[in-house]
Amino acid sequence: MIGKTIAELRVGDAAEVAKTVSESDIYLYAGITGDFNPAHIDEEYAKGTFFKTRIAHGMLLAGFISTVVGNRLPGPGTIYVKQELNFLAPVHMGDTITARVEVTEMIVEKNRIKLKTTCVNQDDTTVLDGEALVSPPKAPKQDG
Fold this sequence. Notes:
This protein has four helices and five strands. The chain is an alpha+beta fold and 144 residues long.
């Protein structure tokens, strides 16, 4: 199964996924990436920071955007070209984050689409926003 091709997409199309961030998510992300910044994994250290407690890695949230792009819109077969991110608020363990993408522009001749990308928490606070440029999958070639 492939995702939506450029012919199947329209400006305004959107999709989202929601995920509650757990302590395990943060530790697994740290282990996979090697990012052991104590702001994320050391509660005693984090108590002395501006946030007063551990926070999730910003790039973990960016991964939630990638989940929407790769699985929902445009979906399987999509290739990331570019992603701009603005980190607007901290995410804590137990926060439920909804990652959303929305088609804002179509560049048909280059098989590219621009997406507005956002993550909001359970209080409807935008914690991340940005813009992505992706190449949606191409239609399979027909035999004959």
